[in-house]
Specification:
The protein has helices spanning 2-23, 226-231, and strands spanning 32-36, 52-54, 57-59, 62-65, 70-73, 84-92, 100-106, 113-118, 126-130, 151-160, 164-171, 174-183, 193-197, 212-220, 237-239, 245-247. β11 (164-171) and β12 (174-183) form a beta hairpin. The chain has one domain (2-247): Jelly Rolls. 42% of the residues are buried. By secondary structure, it is mainly beta. The protein is 11% helix and 37% strand. The protein has two helices and 16 strands. The longest helix has 22 residues, at 2-23.
Length: 255
Amino acid sequence: MRVKVYYICTILLMLSLSAPAVFAQDAQSDNLVGWWLFDSEKDEMGNWDDIALHGAELKDGQLIVDTDKWAHALEYTGPDITEKTLMTWVSLDDLASPAGSALTLDKVTVDQFNAMVYAEREPNQWMSGSSHFRRTDDFPNAVNEKKEGEMVYLAFTYEDKGGTYKITGYRNGASLGSYEKGEIKEWPAGDAEAIWGYRHTNGLTGPGNLSAHIEESRIYAVALTEDEVKSMEIGTLSVDAKGKLATKWAKLKTR
């Protein structure tokens, strides 16, 4: 009898240790408005039109962008976005690739964007790019990328602090620091696009280039907390038949 109790207690302990990390993947799932696994052109949430490829390529569950090879998703139909989190998993193919984005939220009708930009102001560093740098500063604890082909998990959060954005960067779950800059803006349904490769666009042209493989991207219409950012793992979310999020015990994709 004691042996059975011991084994039951051991199993319960193991589940209690593993469950928080798994179930944390559902953090703010109601506010996940864009989610791309790059197994196809589709947004798993159904809020965006299929990705349009402009020289970029979908291959083996990754989006591959390069010089003048980019992609975007238009026709956003989800809730209006003010506070937000941009999240992506990306590996650089060229450390010298200048001023492109691993994920941009852009307004179609006017020059208004926030982007996960590489090496625009400082070489080898990620920053939060924005129109005319209105919401841009260098992260206090920015990291210099030193290795091509290394998958890096990035998350930038944009929190409303009394009408001004507090912008915090994270790399592999570690904080890059925060700053407050720029008035709160809105990206409404019918006037937003997600971009990969170019920093932003004007029609089918735009500045910046990124040479990279992008594994997964997400846009949340909320500023995630540090604990929520740290809880995320690649490929651990699934969508059920009704479009609601469910968590799987195993990752959807293995590389």
